[in-house]
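Letters spell out the chain; the tokens describe the backbone. To illustrate:

===
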Amino acid sequence: MEEQKEKIQLRKLGGTNKNIGTSYNMFKTSKNGTRGITLIALVITIIVLLILAAVSIATLTGDNGILTKAQTAKTTNDTAQAEEEMKLLLADWQLEKKSNSSADLGDFLNEKLENGELDNLTDNGNGNYTIQRNEYETTISDENGLGEITKKEPEPPVELLNPGDKANLTQKDNYVDVNEDKATIPEGFTISAEDNTIDTGLVVTAPDESEFVWVPVPYAIATGEKTAIDAQGNKAMAVKDPTDEKYYRGLLYNFKGTGVDSYSELITGCTTTYFDENSGDREPDYLTDSRVADESIYNTLSKDVFSETTLKAEYKAMVESVEKYGGFYVGRYETSLTEDKSNVASKRGQTPMSAADTKGATDYDTQRWYGMYNRQKNYASGIKVKEKEVVGSSMIWGSQWDAMLNWILTGADKSKVTKSSTRYQGKTGNSNDVINKIYDLGNNFSEWTLAAYLSSARVARGSRYKYDYPPCWGSSLSYPSEATVDFGSRLALYIK
């Protein structure tokens, strides 16, 4: 009876079981009359679906896939748009320069940044800038125009380092010590396995085995002298230049008291009222006295290496790095020359470099203040990592020296800042002259800085072997043209 009913149904559909062949035979009727799909049919269906899925995925992805082509087209379009915007910006600048010969590229780019036409701006010094727009960046300068336009890749996750590790990449706050204080270790630098606590002196070793100590600066740039100290008592090291806000001026301090009562006070007016050639300590500034002027015979450095403009640009690069990374590095020892005198170093057991060191009797670029400035500025280029400079280097600035002492005043060694030193002259690293893992602040030589005094002198900090002054002593003045053996210096590094 059931079979007869089934045939009637098939005739209504216009066929027989033979007409529908396999389609009919694929189905079975269970004993209770329920229709279902066979296992073979299920397997075949799954295989067909998998084949269709594979074809679809291959069509969407792969080197010639729809999604890949769409992404490539988007990237090409974005790059072309970024290139067009950069070229238009360069054309705008060239028109601006043509109509106003005194126009400044830095001012022009800062205005574009403020107007939202640029997303980021970095001053690389010497009239060269890095500009960023919509994840694309390039360099720009009067001399070379636009550089190669590249997409700025997202920063990888921070790889936290341990004592004894070498940094494979410069990443902000890539080291956290046992007290949860943070520091940034530059690529290619190694953390000391022993001296690795930030509040007492975190020591790192550079690729040339020179040693440096991290100086944390939680508050780098103040809006003015009145806000030089923040609510937490942190002391700033710089303010915006009131005459040109794309640059900065250094905040300098006097150190007073004795023992655990040692403290510092801002030198009021050091960035405003008294920032001129008739006043005291200031930076960055150029000397103008005709007897020892920075443009006199004693300075044979070219203007693109040393001028009022380059000094301002170098100070700006340092201060903005300190603001970004929360600190800088100072040489653990007084600066010494390498054996062949081709570079400088910060190593223990060396003869400290003095203003009298020279390659030739008349080679002013390698002796006196200018020689020490030039050697220490070029230190970073001698320790490149993967063919790039990971740090910037310089003779220590006066505001860096004071930031170093202000940091020491917050720790266990604060009494040593104003303590008289013992007279010592010899190799670097005297064990009786160490504060927060930093040596030679009170012995060997007074250390020339970049701070200017009046129109004719550069300021040296710290004591020297002839006297028993404390490390905070800051009134040693000397003409940069002098080749005295009593004046040395100290390296400082900022992270690039």
